[in-house]
Amino acid sequence: MLIEVPAVIVLFVMMIHVTANALLRAFASHPIPNTLEITQYIYLPIIALLGFMAAQARGEHIVADLVTHHFPTSVRRAVLAGGYVLAALVMFGFAWYGLEEALHAREIGRTAGVSTVVSWPVFFLIPISFGVFGIQLCFATVRALRGAEDDTDPIDAEVARINEELDAEHALPAPISATPDSEAK
């Protein structure tokens, strides 16, 4: 997925930065300045916010259908679509609030804690990521209403196939021996 590329790059850069900071602190007694602030206010928010979008694009958010799998198909679709609509509205609300906060952070020139590391540009990723997440949930609503969510999960289908193969192997009759049971003793 295209969204995963920047997240992986930021994760790799963060890994190198933190490792270099630890090595320089331990062996040269000269750590990289503001590593904690850069990690906390720049790297981690980027990774987390891009991760929300990537998980939704891959369909890998946690689903707990303890009750809904007992519902008739049409009711299950309606409940799922209603949940997606509610979640999309919440995400759009977060995007709106995040935009207001990002504009305010830019206006005051927000920095990371008490350091001089500028952190306000990362605030603009909040409305972008939650807005995109809301749009993804709108598409998921349409898919749920069309019944695309009714299909069997590929992993569940693969597990069922493997279980059928194992059952078939265990159901084979025992080989017939040439000697009667009385002679085998």
UniProtKB/TrEMBL annotation:
Pfam families: DctQ. Keywords: Cell inner membrane, Cell membrane, Membrane, Transmembrane, Transmembrane helix, Transport. Residues 14-146 form the Tripartite ATP-independent periplasmic transporters DctQ component domain. It comes from Rhodococcus zopfii. Its main location: membrane. It is a multi-pass membrane protein. Belongs to the TRAP transporter small permease family. This is TRAP transporter small permease. The chain crosses the membrane at residues 7-28, 40-57, 78-97, 117-139. It is found in: Cell inner membrane.
